[in-house]
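Key idea: predict the complex, not the pieces.
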Amino acid sequence: MAISINGQDYPLPEDPRTSLLDFIRRDARLPGTKKGCDHGQCGACTVLVGGVRINSCLSLAVTHDGDEVTTIEGLGTLAAPSAMQSAFVAHDGFQCGYCTPGQICSATAMLQELAAGWPSDATADLEAAPNLTDDEIRERMSGNLCRCGAYANILAAIRDVAGESA
Amino acid sequence: MTVHLKQDAPDERNVLDFTGQSVIGEPLSRPEGLLKVTGTATYAAEYEVDGCCEGVLVTLPVVRGEVTAIDEASVLSMPGVIAVLSDERMTGRPAQGMAGEAPFQPAKDVCYWGQPVALVVAETFEQARDAAKHVAMDWRSEQAPLDPAAVETEESESTRQGDLAHAMAEAAHSVDVVFTTEGHASAAMEPHAALAQWEDGKLTVHASLQMLKFNRAELADSIGLEEEQVRLLSPYVGGGFGSKLGVSQEVVAASLAAMHLGRPVRVVMSRQQVFQTVERRSETHQRIRLAADAEGRLTGFGHEARVSNLPGESFAEPVLQSSHFLYAGENRLLRLEVARIHRMTAGSVRAPGEAVGVQTVEQAMDMLAEKVGIDPVELRLRNIPDKHPANGKPFSSRKLAEALREGATAFGWEPRPRTPRHTREGEWWIGTGMASAARVHSVVEAKARVTLRPGGTALVETDMTDIGTGSYAILGQVAGEMLGLVPDDIEVRLGDTDLPPGSGSGGSVGAASCGSAVFLACQGLRKELAERLGIAPESLTLKDGFARWSGGQKALTELLNQEPIECTGHFEPGASTEDMAVSSFGAFFAEVAVNRWTGETRVRRMTGAFGFGRVLNARTARSQCLGGLTWCIGNALTESLLFDPVDGHLVNCDLAEYHVPVNRDVPDLEVLLLEERDAAASPIQAKGVGELGLCGGAAAIANAIHDACGARVFAYPMTPDRVLAAMPET
Amino acid sequence: MRPFDYQRAERLTHAAQLTADADTLALAGGTNLIDLMKLQVETPQTLVDIGRLSLGEIADEGAGKARGLRIGALATNTATAAHPRVRADYPVLARGILAGATQQLRNKATTGGNLCQRTRCYYFTNIDQPCNKREPGSGCGAIKGIARIHAVLGTSPHCIATYPGDMAVAMAALDATVEIASENSSRSVPVRGFHRLPGDTPERDNVLEPGEIITAVTLPAPVGGIHLYRKVRERSSYAFALCSVAAVIALEDNRFTRADLAFGGLAHKPWHDPRIADLLIGNEPSLALFDKAADLLLEDAQGYGENDFKIPLARRTLAAVLCEATGVEP
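Result:
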């Protein structure tokens, strides 16, 4: 009975009320994942579970035993940041930095979703593979609020990374 | 060593243009960027402290009343509950920006719905959150005025010149319109949070605050401690936008609990509590009157506004702030009134005043341009006053005309009178609109210490905060420019009251105030180095770690000779900003699409051209402007606080129903930074940048909506229903 | 959040058995339930985690021309919207799902959970306000309060809340069927009849009884036609519908042969009025006809001040959808 976070196992919490978010921040001592609203309304708590992005605030930790969770700390480090992390720095894709880990987790998963051909509200032709248009990126990143208003630079950072991998 | 300057005269030396390191203004990445993107920048609630317990605020669901009894026993038997705190010193409201003294106490005197009245402390967050919902209390409640339109108002400010009514009657063209704007929330992404520790008579609080030297005084005064007993730390702040200017309820509550229990206590507001208890931007009701001659030259200018606040609060949303000087017109009437009602404290939300005051003037100007039959840009150009229209002071520097012209060119603005409904793409009407931008400039006292270390690196220290604004970057760049060091050789430490008191972040004062303090400290260091070389400071060039003068060069490390030297810069505003009208100016251009069926509006692109003095870092300055433009979109289209008419509670108290713009709402944004040196603004010729970008832009969107579909919407935000109601039938 | 007993259901019958208890709720994706538990709007004593039951499959139902699609109750919204058959044969459903929430939420939200999503009424989610849905008999705060997001169709003096979802609106247009199991039996209910009107029991959102678990939603064989989902909202993404229209439209010889329409954001349930199809079918599309359809739709509409705008907005959104589907120029 454990949850794997960034490759390390952590025993399940005693209190079943503990959200996956609080479990990550407190029990696993990985405060890079942020609590912005605690109600699935801002995206600051976005993490990857089995490679899929979710709002960790709306998930109970006890339901995740055996799951593989990746947080911002698992994507890259100060010494070896991921391409997305570096692009956010290069394009000033943040200001206060509080929504940023969620944005980066989201952006990382989003490019995989696009590659897998998942459609979005911005997809013109549902039966074709979605294109990497600005509107697609914006729609797919709309689950991550940024009050500083760094969206334009977030788009540029994602474009930069997507261009590299394309 | 200390260098003090009270700036009584403009500084036209433009020192930073001649220092030679060429890092000032450069678009450098934020030095703390890697910490933020890797999740290793630590915010207030995230410090690991042994034995820390969790506090949750208890709020009262009445709009006016008094808590008469709190039954602590009602929750003390719940698992993990340690204490219920209802100390008389708990604060019911946040402090206003730069108050420097305790906000309203005691908390149990309830003045708005959802006011915190107690704190439950438990071993875990879940235990505390649950118990906070179960505290039994007795209270008495009473009716209280809730509707700003239904109460007597107090006059807050009034300026009369000439005879506006006469000017209106005589005008060749006139506009007389009423606008409304609804309340706004700062909605910073990091909820208000404090982690307090009490040890050996000293209180240490990690908190999410914008202006630490004031906050320390507010907290000490609230609790009854000496300031020296209080240390605040806010090295990273997850956004503030005014809501963290003054010490807020959770900071005082956590501190009292830590002192009471002798254990560290963490209190983080829920998102709902953030909405319900920290400062709101007041809703406004504004009447604009413009009188003009046949060519559109203003002969009269009227701006009357009503805002609201709680009884006892001195803050009144300064709606008229830029109306005093933005446009000409010899007959003037400006009047601000405050309605006393029981909504949560009204206070500063990003760009208080202009954020809602300029966008009404700028829509009225658009209407006037239509009546006169000229290009809206031309109307603005014709009405730029020579001197401050009320007090005759000269403008220190003003890039309004340049912003209008260069912004128009960059945007591809068609200079013509506007006739709505000229372009349709399928279901969407397409239109463009523009507006001027204006924001008053101010600076406040600030200190910063700069140390040249023996290894040839520098340390910059102040209690200044970086709330996303770029303080870490720009203060390092000012020091680098002055000391001839590359930014990697400069360490900037912020957000700790143990460091020299800076200005804090708020009102766009930070860059110019703290930047000047760093500048002065570096001047002191330069003087010391020059003395060691036996040359005049003006003869000294510092570049890439070397001191150069006409007679030769020497490595900085050699000059330091194993010993650090330090200097504290102390900047104070003086007569330079009093003798002149000092403000930032700019222009906005927007293209929108309005759906003919549903009234939905999508902004398709925006251009902002801004002049705010010296640009200290072109990247972070641009980002500030991008943020401003994004706020314009929320202000124009989506953001409004909705209050229940029966019991006065804020109904849309979360991020699902209070609509801050999402990524998809924000199109391509173009920012033009206009080079400017404002000698009166500060010794580094810089003015504020953080707020200008949202001062008027919502009107560019409103005017574009009108140009697109013919709907003139007098109520912000221009939600689909409002656009539809104003849209002429085809 | 109140303390609760957490149990994981290993089998469907086990889950049904456990949820028969009045103080027990089933947890699937949790995106709505955990939100409401944190607010203490929902206070179950026992939470039965059904998330690991094998109910996530999306598979053909039947064969040949009658080949429908069975979407398991635990299929995520993402899986459904991305499924090739949903995209090809039921695009209105893919569009509806994708118009709702965010990718993060859709990755977690399930078919069954989304059908059971509770209202976003501000008074329902605030336990310090009166709400007959949350606390029967306490009154309705919205009727005299801020009713901006509230219903204009099928309201009652006790409740004017809306069903907030998008997926179910598309399913109502498609005339899908909800499959429900209890410990000893199973039954099917059309999506159009799954949600209730508030009447004098607004605490009941739908027809699900204690001990019943949604196992799947079955889509009938594809009918072709033009599929549209139009959602009007206050921002361009991540907002609930002020009004939405799901439409499956077919024309032959410029006459309607199919006009399956359902509406979101207007009522306590996805709104389907069979009279609209009756009116449209056999007739040539025209603005006048669309107006008549709106007259039928909104015949009994009642605004509550703040939400009066929804009545003309619904009329216009319907016209927009019908114009887009038929090519009629406004």
